[in-house]
Amino acid sequence: MVYSVMAPPHSMSAQELLRWYIDAGVDETIADGPVNRFQEKPKAANPAPLDLGGKKKDLADAAAPPPSSSPSLPEASPEMSLLPPQGGANGEVTAAVHLAQSAESVDELRRALETFDGCGLKKTATKLVFTDGNPEAPILFVGEGPGAEEDRQGLPFVGPSGKLLDKMLASIGLDRTGVLISNTVFWRPPGNRTPTPQETAVCMPFLERLIELVDPKILVALGGPAAKSLLAETTSVGRLRGKWFSYSTPGLARPIDATALYHPAYLLRSPGQKRVTWMDWLGIKSKLQAP
Ligand code: URA
Predict the structure, then answer these.
(1) C-alpha to C-alpha distance for 247 and 254, rounded to whole angstroms
(2) Looking at the predicted structure, is the pLDDT value of residue 1 above 60?
(3) Separation of 159 CA from ligand 1 center, angstroms?
(4) What is the pLDDT of residue 48?
(5) What number is the average pLDDT over the span 42-69?
(6) Could you tell me the CATH number of the domain that includes residue 180?
(7) Residue 11: pLDDT above 90?
(8) Closest to 276 in 3D by CA, of 287, 265, 257, 260
(9) Distance (Å, rounded) from C-alpha 39 to C-alpha 205?
């Protein structure tokens, strides 16, 4: 549950403060870092007027933050960046690639992830959420990222959308002993926000290595964000579902058949889409049974 609580008294130790928040009912973090609400924000001295006349000012420029010497805004941390990483210049992604590629089994990959500190989400999450199911399975499902229940248990898809996923698996005669399930990010984003491109990019080398190690017959992206990451398609899942794509990396001996499904959380909100999704599951079943 997410609460908005009044400010605690000033003169408390860190331990007292934590107890105060717990007693007030706070049980999860929704921001990436602590916010010092006691610190008054200095008022901006003379905000520069927007020059809307003469040479037209680009609105993106107008919305850009002031230079970092401005006292009124905190400096952006790397985790706050919404820009995609710049290839090899991004140290965390490079480190993730090396670490992931050094793993020779799914267990080794999990241990490598446990030691990895390059993803900001790890700071606010309770547990690493990597895989559930059978690493020998012919089918790998990839969702977006862990939610509250997944964060508590350290397993993907164990909350309400996981319950629906289990039902849909059962409808084609499968359960978690015959599939493997993972996500595009391996720690819960605070307040279930969408992972930033940087968070996704830094987890991607681990997901790619997972796919290489498991080498499934079929790869299924659950929802738009997973479809975008895995299928390199920018169009909506509504247009991608029901179609088959090829997923390949240099580490795979052959391309893998990949498809996208509506995310179970979306189906819980939009049960009208269950009908077409049932057709998609039947397509997956026949692909699995095909020689
Ligand atoms: N939604 C996801 O995308 N992944 C989970 O693990 C749980 C919910």
Answers:
(1) 9
(2) no
(3) 8
(4) 40
(5) 35
(6) 3.40.470.10
(7) no
(8) 260
(9) 39
In a domain, 245, yes or no: yes
* Ligand 1 centroid – CA 180 distance (Å): 13
What is the whole-number distance in angstroms between the Cα of residue 59 and the centre of ligand 1? 36
The total of structural domains in the chain comes to 1
Read off the pTM. 0.75
Distance CA 204, CA 249 (A): 12
Q: Using CA atoms, how far apart are residues 149 and 160, in angstroms rounded to an integer?
A: 9
Q: 3-state DSSP call for residue 191? A: helix
**37, part of any domain:** no
Q: Is residue 217 part of a domain?
A: yes
CB of 120 closer than 8 Å to CB of 93? no
Pocket of ligand 1 (CB under 6 A): 143-147, 150, 156-157, 159, 161-162, 183, 265
Q: Cβ of 261: how many Cβ atoms within 10 Å? A: 27
The rounded radius of gyration (Å) of the Cα atoms in the chain is 22
Q: How far is the CA of 182 from the centre of ligand 1 (A)?
A: 8
Range of the domain at 208: 89-289
**Residue 108 CA, ligand 1 centroid: distance in Å:** 23
Closest-lying ligand 1 atom to the alpha carbon of residue 226: 3
Does residue 1 sit within a domain?
no
Q: In this predicted structure, what is the pLDDT of residue 81?
A: 37
What single-letter amino acid sits at 160?
P
The minimum-distance atom of ligand 1 relative to the CA of 264 is 1
E-strand stretches of 50-199: 132-133, 139-143, 180-183
What span, in angstroms and rounded, lies between the C-alpha atoms of 266 and 277? 11
